[in-house]
């Protein structure tokens, strides 16, 4: 085997290495510096310092001067994890008190000693990070507050939306009149049912039917969604988180004011306060306005603000608008299909009159159920002192009031007592005739 080893040994192979000697050398090299802080913490600090790309003296000087030009924001956020603890401060200060040479300390320990000499180090780091993030935070929070304000106020003040909701309520009362009397309103979650309630033939939803009614009888309401502003953006806002972030900006600015009172020679802090104090005050006002506007619109619709945050409230309207637009498209497609079917030359239906050939009769047939319903609703208004016109203010309210005062009955229905008396009279008359 010795011959085999000699023939096939690698060329790089040299004399055998003494492992014990190697371990002694490594141990001597590793023990050349003194480590006072925990080993893993020192290792992570060394990695962080390499990312900073600055000398320890330059880093500490930039922290003291709040110099954002030299300090990278990501580096500062990493460095906050290495603020010396009370125990580390005690150990490092004791080492200096014993007048031991700093050169014998590891690089990470010497850096930690420099950090302990910076006054109010945690506050300085917070201020640097705060100033670095301030512009982005302001640009992020302002549009969210504006979206809440605009969406809340536009929904509450929209006249067209109110009339559409009145129409929906009237149909709801009409559908439920045989079970219970009319109601004054409905929960917003009921708007989702418009997309789920199907017709008897399963060809359309209640939303399709209501949209068709609005298009034919109240065309001025079709563009109601143009009055609702920034609903999509408001639906994605967590108002509670936004308000908390605004408070954090206020607290950060207050910390800078306190620090500036102690160190009034810092031009960086002075300029920052001068440029941004009014911006924070304006943001606080917008925050208060957003909360008040949202509280108002939630109360307006009878919902509980504790159970209805903006990211639950506004999506109701978001889905309603989307469903309404989709229903408009579906109705248009169905209308075109019906027109094409009426004009189809291969139609084998019996001969029709001229009006049917022109496509008018199918349209009248499609309108028949709607006209019956509208006529039924109008008939409930007979006997009042004033006439009710579609599209005028109060029309839907009159319908709802009348439905609430007396349950809905078909036009050919009558009270049981009246029917009983008529039956008795008929029997009496028939008896006399037979006699």
Would you summarize the structure shown here?
The chain is mainly alpha-helical. It has 19 helices and no strands.
State the helicity in percent bands: 55-70%
Number of helices: 19
- On the 0 to 100 scale, the average pLDDT is 79
Please provide the count of β strands: 0
Radius of gyration: 40 Å
What is the helix/strand order? Answer: HHHHHHHHHHHHHHHHHHH
Main sheet summary: none
Protein structure class: mainly alpha
Low-confidence spans: 22-30, 350-365, 380-416, 427-435
Fraction in beta strands: under 5%
Overall 3D form: elongated
Give the end-to-end Cα distance, rounded to a whole number of Å.
Answer: 142 Å
Please describe what this structure looks like.
With 435 residues, the chain is mostly helical. It contains 19 helices and no strands. Helix 8 packs antiparallel against helix 13 (239-262) and helix 8 runs parallel beside helix 14. Mean pLDDT is 79; it is low at 22-30, 350-365, 380-416 and 427-435.
Give the SSE map.
Elements: H1 2-8, H2 19-30, H3 39-52, H4 56-65, H5 73-79, H6 86-97, H7 107-116, H8 121-157, H9 159-175, H10 193-196, H11 206-217, H12 231-235, H13 239-262, H14 267-300, H15 310-342, H16 354-357, H17 360-379, H18 395-405, H19 416-434
């Amino acid at each position: 085997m010795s011959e085999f080893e000699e023939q096939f040994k690698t060329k790089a192979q040299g004399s055998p290495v003494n492992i014990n000697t190697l371990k002694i050398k490594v141990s001597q090299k590793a023990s050349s510096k003194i480590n006072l802080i925990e080993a893993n913490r020192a290792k992570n600090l060394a990695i962080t310092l390499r990312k900073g790309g600055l000398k320890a003296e330059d880093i500490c000087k930039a922290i003291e001067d709040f110099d954002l030009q030299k300090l990278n924001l990501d580096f500062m956020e990493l460095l906050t994890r290495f603020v010396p603890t009370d125990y580390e401060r005690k150990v490092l200060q004791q080492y200096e008190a014993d007048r031991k040479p700093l050169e014998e300390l590891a690089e990470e320990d010497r850096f930690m000693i420099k950090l302990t000499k910076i006054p109010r180090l945690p506050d300085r780091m917070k201020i640097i990070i705060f100033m670095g993030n301030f512009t982005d935070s302001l640009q992020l929070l302002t549009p969210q507050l504006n979206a809440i304000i605009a969406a809340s106020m536009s929904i509450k003040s929209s006249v067209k939306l109110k009339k559409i909701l009145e129409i929906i309520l009237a149909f709801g009362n009409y559908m439920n009149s045989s079970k219970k009397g009319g109601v004054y309103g409905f929960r917003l979650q009921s708007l989702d049912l418009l997309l789920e309630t199907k017709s008897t033939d399963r060809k359309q939803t209640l939303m399709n039917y209501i949209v068709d009614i609005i298009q034919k009888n109240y065309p001025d309401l079709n563009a109601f969604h143009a009055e609702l502003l920034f609903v999509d953006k408001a639906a994605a806002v967590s108002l509670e988180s936004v308000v908390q972030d605004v408070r954090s900006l206020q607290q950060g600015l207050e910390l800078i004011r306190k620090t500036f009172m102690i160190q009034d020679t810092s031009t960086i802090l002075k300029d920052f306060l001068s440029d941004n104090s009014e911006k924070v005050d304006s943001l606080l006002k917008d925050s208060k306005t957003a909360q008040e506007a949202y509280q108002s619109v939630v109360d307006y619709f009878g919902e509980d603000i504790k159970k209805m945050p903006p990211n639950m409230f506004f999506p109701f309207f978001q889905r309603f608008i989307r469903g309404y637009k989709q229903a408009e498209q579906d109705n248009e497609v169905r209308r075109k299909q019906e027109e094409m079917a009426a004009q189809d030359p291969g139609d084998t239906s019996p001969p029709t009159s001229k009006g049917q050939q022109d496509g008018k009769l199918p349209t009248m047939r499609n309108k028949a159920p709607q006209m019956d319903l509208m006529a039924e609703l109008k008939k409930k208004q007979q006997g009042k002192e004033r006439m009710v016109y579609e599209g005028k203010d109060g029309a839907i309210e009159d319908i709802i009031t009348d439905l609430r005062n007396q349950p809905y009955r078909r036009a050919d229905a009558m009270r049981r007592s009246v029917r009983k008396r008529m039956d008795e009279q008929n029997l009496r008359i028939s008896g006399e005739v037979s006699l």
